[in-house]
TrEMBL record:
<feature type="transmembrane region" description="Helical">
    <location>
        <begin position="6"/>
        <end position="25"/>
    </location>
</feature>
<feature type="transmembrane region" description="Helical">
    <location>
        <begin position="118"/>
        <end position="137"/>
    </location>
</feature>
<keyword id="KW-1133">Transmembrane helix</keyword>
<feature type="transmembrane region" description="Helical">
    <location>
        <begin position="32"/>
        <end position="53"/>
    </location>
</feature>
<keyword id="KW-0812">Transmembrane</keyword>
<feature type="transmembrane region" description="Helical">
    <location>
        <begin position="59"/>
        <end position="77"/>
    </location>
</feature>
<protein>
    <recommendedName>
        <fullName>Glycosyl transferase</fullName>
    </recommendedName>
</protein>
<keyword id="KW-0472">Membrane</keyword>
Length: 138
C-alpha cells in the first residue's frame, strides 16, 4: 500500500507541475510565496515516504503524512485567493473556501486543477491509512 501512495503522489505531482508551468506563464508571480511553498513541501513529501517504503519504519510514514497535512493548505489557500479575486472578494473567509472548492470541482478553473483538487484525496487518505496500519501492525 505504501507503493500505491507513492504512485498516486507521483501522478499528483505530475499534474502539479503542469499547473505550476501554467501559473508561471500566466500569473506573473502572483502569490508566489504560497505556490513555491506548496510545491517544495509537496515534493518534499517523497523523501520521508520513500524512507518509509525502504525501512518500513512507521515514523517516516507519519512524517510524510504530516508534510501533507501541513502544506496542502498552501495550495488550498492559493485556490481560494484566486477564485475569490475572480468573484471580487478582497478578503476571503471560511465560506469562500467552500465556494472555491465547488467552483474548482465543477471544472470552472480547468480540468487540471479539478483533477489535482479531487485526486488529492487519493494521496491523503491512503497515506493516513498506511501510517496508522504501519503503527498498529508494526
Amino acid at each position: 500500500m505504501g507503493y500505491l501512495v507513492l504512485i498516486t503522489g507521483l501522478i499528483q505531482a505530475a499534474v502539479g507541475v503542469a499547473l505550476l508551468m501554467s501559473w508561471a506563464r500566466h500569473a506573473r508571480g502572483q502569490d508566489a510565496g504560497l505556490i513555491v511553498t506548496h510545491v517544495v513541501a509537496m515534493l518534499g513529501f517523497f523523501v520521508p515516504w520513500t524512507l518509509f517504503i525502504a525501512t518500513r519504519e512507521p515514523l517516516w510514514a507519519w512524517v510524510g503524512f504530516v508534510v501533507l497535512v501541513a502544506f496542502i493548505g498552501f495550495g488550498d489557500t492559493e485556490v481560494v485567493r484566486r477564485t475569490s479575486r475572480d468573484r471580487g472578494v478582497a478578503r476571503p473567509r471560511l465560506p469562500d473556501y467552500w465556494r472555491s472548492m465547488v467552483a474548482v470541482c465543477a471544472g470552472r478553473y480547468g480540468r487540471a486543477l479539478q483533477f489535482h483538487t479531487l485526486f488529492s484525496a487519493a494521496v491523503f487518505f491512503p497515506a493516513l491509512y498506511v501510517a496508522i496500519a504501519a503503527t498498529v501492525g508494526g
